[in-house]
Design goal:
heterotrimer, A alpha+beta (277), B alpha+beta (240), C alpha+beta (242), B: 240 residues, alpha+beta, OB fold (Dihydrolipoamide Acetyltransferase, E2P), Ribosomal Protein S8, Chain: A, domain 1, four-stranded antiparallel sheet, 6 helices, C: 242 residues, Ribosomal Protein S5, domain 2, five-stranded mixed sheet, 4 helices, 11 strands, 27% helix, globular
């Protein structure tokens, strides 16, 4: 059952008044412009045991994404496709309000929003994951671990999933006459797995003010959030309104445009970061 | 800005319906809200329009205690020095032992249940409605306290004003025609007692239920009067 | 997922004969349960959803209560017989997400500050699923809240717009959702012109998005009129007993 949450972080009224009055003048207490995304850093191949991995920092938010590739069976209704699974864990290291246990509704929502963006944009061509048609396919597990929570976990996770997929190359496999499959993780295909880039952009609303990439302090004041999955060719590959407030009908095209512009920006930053070193 | 009202008096309205704009006075702050100089209904109800005063009388809803309300409560549990009483509100109410007894409870010699037990019915007044605190009741005053006899009728508390009627007219009609004692509590519980006989008692109860059901249909008082007369004739109660 | 294998639009008409901007037959009844404080049964074609509201009340779990407002508890659940293949009655990840999304579609209209330290419980059972269950759920839940007498800023109604065979289509059903290119559920509080639920599963161009939103708005307006009628009907149908 979904229950109205208590305020995760109590922001004193004097502080919230300051933030709101600053927003009225187009600035944020953290010095960012309303449409400014926090600095992004990516550390590649952070987890030796994963097939690919990245540690993404979006400001002070840290998200670790690991991809594991496993040989498995296709679903009966999609015999000629592999599978992609996105899971998110809000580990208790990340925040005083995260409790150990199975993913809560926030973690489930986040993973499903990230999953839908990747799936609908066809970021990974699932038909290229077939090893033996109808019998053996690759299963891609994208596991997102939130390590430190300073707001906008959705976009940090989406960047993490994208970057990790960009780095993923399928191992070479040998299918023996016996039907046995031998995976050689030391030799991988040249062609990267990623087919099309997609990333979410989250915009927060406080009253009539909008701000891109809200941090934790701002998040606790938000009326609502709006996440837009944006592809590198400027399409919308997913939307999710969340939070307890509204989105006004007439402001939506503006929000979507803002997200499309920011998405393009984030995608080129991530691509540049992965090219370096 | 010119004030205007867009609904007729006693018009059936729904949540979000625009009632008027400009400078109007809200008479029912829970069921009407204003936004940017416009007034909207927050509930399903009947518009109550009088000049530039606007309100909505809800057709559904809960009982929300106000200080001074007379309520009929049912004891649901006993604590160490107070009873928990169901008054059909979102929260249960508290009646302290000292209020009922006029002295502190003597735990060595008596138990709370000696005075009021689970299931007992009380007539009480709302003493305090606390934010962050429980609603407290008092039974001080004549006629308040445990109710030992009579018939209890429950109706939607939103319909209580219709049972009382304008300036008490409906209640007066019931008292005059049925010759019973009728205590209408604000929380939608009504006690009918001391009727001349069972026929009168039944007519009183049936009338109350009819008021609840047809509360939103105009001409209610006349209809109830007619109903009582018909019932009396049918039961042969007009002999003298 | 076998997309594009099924022809969804032919000669401007859909597989069930509807025009692109046509809703399925919709029926709405209010006050269908005796025990709940408010209830509604809503059907969009073969999709059938029951919503019940209990409260404001004091729940068993007191620790969830808030000092300044009522908490809203919401559960969206699909009955095990509601789908083509039997669904396990335990809550799936999808149902957990939708319970949250539906709660957040209702939160902005409920005037929850009036009832501190209470909980308002919204229980939704999908009885039969044929696409659009979450939007039908919002439509039903908002009526159940109104029937419970809980003050709201306005009613909320929902409908999904899809993209099928390249066309935008109103109120898509399960076949259109499964084989179409996009599904965009929307819920709007029409009297406030505010959107309370918006999701997109699929790909749209910015231009298509704007058109899809407009199509949803028109559909919601029709459903909103039906909601108001259904609420009033409950009272207008009471006949004076002679």
């Amino acid at each position: 059952m979904s229950v109205t949450p208590s305020a995760e972080f109590l922001i004193p009224k004097l502080k919230s008044d300051v933030i709101i009055s600053m927003l009225g003048r187009g600035v944020r207490p953290n010095g960012r412009k309303v449409d400014e995304v926090r600095p992004i850093t990516v550390i590649k191949n952070y987890i030796p045991n994963a097939d690919s991995s990245v540690l993404v920092k979006l400001g002070n938010t840290q998200v670790l994404t690991g991809i594991k590739l496993e040989v498995g069976s296709p679903f009966p209704d999609t015999p000629s496709e592999g599978n992609l699974m996105v899971n998110a864990e809000f580990v208790p290291t990340a925040s005083p309000v995260f409790e150990p246990g199975p993913p809560d509704e926030n973690a489930i929502e986040l993973s499903r929003v990230v999953d839908r963006g990747i799936r609908e944009a066809r970021a990974v061509d699932l038909s290229k994951l077939v090893i033996i048609p109808g019998k053996k396919v690759w299963n891609i597990w994208v596991d997102i671990y939130v390590l430190d929570h300073d707001g906008n976990l959705t976009d940090a996770s989406s960047i993490g999933a994208l970057a990790a997929l960009m780095l993923t190359k399928l191992p070479e496999v040998e299918v023996r006459d016996t039907g046995e499959i031998v995976v050689d993780r030391n030799n991988r295909k040249e062609q990267p797995l990623l087919n099309r880039s997609v990333v979410t952009v989250t915009i927060g609303k406080i009253g009539n003010y909008v701000l891109v990439d809200p941090d934790l302090e701002e998040e606790s004041l938000l009326d609502s959030k709006f996440s837009v999955a944006v592809t590198d060719d400027g399409l919308i590959a997913g939307l999710q309104k969340s939070g307890m407030g509204y989105l006004a009908e007439d402001e939506l095209p503006l929000l979507v445009n803002m997200a499309l512009n920011k998405g393009k920006e984030i995608l080129s930053i991530v691509k540049a970061l992965l090219k370096d070193s | 800005m010119e004030s205007s009202v867009y609904v007729q008096n006693r018009e059936l309205v729904t949540p979000g319906q625009l009632l008027g704009r400009g400078k109007l006075t809200i008479t029912t702050p829970i069921t009407v809200y204003s936004l940017d100089g416009k007034y909207y209904s927050a509930v399903v109800g009947l518009a109550d329009v009088e000049g530039d005063k606007i309100g909505v009388i809800p057709l559904e809803g809960f009982y929300y205690p106000k200080v001074g309300d007379v309520v009929i409560g049912i004891v649901v549990s006993t604590g160490t020095n107070s009873w928990e009483v169901d008054i059909r509100a979102p929260h249960t109410a508290i009646l302290y032992a000292s209020d009922l007894l006029g002295r502190p409870l003597n735990p060595g010699r008596e138990m709370l249940s000696d005075h009021l037990d689970v299931g007992d019915v009380i007539l009480a007044k709302v003493e305090n409605v606390g934010r962050g605190r429980a609603t407290t009741l008092t039974v001080k005053g004549k006629g308040f306290g445990k109710i030992n006899k009579g018939s209890l009728v429950e109706i939607d508390s939103a319909k209580v004003p219709r049972v009382i009627g304008k300036k008490g007219s409906m209640l007066q009609l019931l008292l005059n025609e049925c010759k019973c004692e009728v205590v209408v509590a604000q929380n939608g519980r009504i006690l009918v007692d001391n009727c001349p006989n069972n026929d009168f008692k039944e007519i009183a109860i049936m009338s109350i239920k009819k008021i609840e059901k047809e509360a939103h249909i105009p001409g209610l008082t006349d209809r109830i009067k007619e109903f009582i007369i018909k019932e009396k004739v049918r039961r042969g109660l007009f002999s003298g | 997922m076998g997309k594009g294998k099924v022809k969804l639009v032919e000669g401007g008409l859909r597989h069930d004969g509807r025009r692109l901007d046509e809703l399925r037959p919709i029926t709405i009844s209010v006050g269908v349960l005796k025990n709940a404080n408010g209830s509604a049964l809503v059907e969009y074609g073969r999709t059938k959803v029951l919503a019940a509201v209990y409260g404001p009340r004091e729940p068993q779990m007191k620790h969830i209560l808030l000092p300044n407002r009522a908490v809203i508890r919401c559960r969206y659940h699909m009955a095990s017989f509601s789908t083509y293949e039997r669904k396990s009655p335990t809550l799936s990840r999808r149902e957990i997400e939708l319970s949250k999304v539906i709660r957040e579609a209702l939160e902005p209209v409920i005037i929850s500050e009036l009832y501190p330290r209470t909980s308002i419980d919204v229980f939704i059972e999908v009885i039969n699923a044929d696409g659009g269950t979450r939007t039908a759920s919002v439509t039903a839940a908002s009526l159940a809240l109104a029937e419970a007498g809980i003050p709201m800023k306005g009613l909320v109604a929902g409908v999904a717009v899809g993209k099928i065979d390249g066309y935008l289509a109103l109120d898509i059903d399960e076949v259109e959702d499964m084989y179409g290119e996009a599904d965009m559920p929307v819920a709007i509080a029409p009297s406030l012109r505010q959107i309370t639920l918006l999701q997109l599963n699929g790909v749209l161009t910015p231009g298509e998005f704007t058109q899809a939103l407009e199509l949803a708005r028109k559909g919601v307006e029709v459903i909103h009129e039906m909601q108001k009628e259904a609420l009033k009907k409950k009272y207008l149908d009471v006949k004076v007993e002679e």
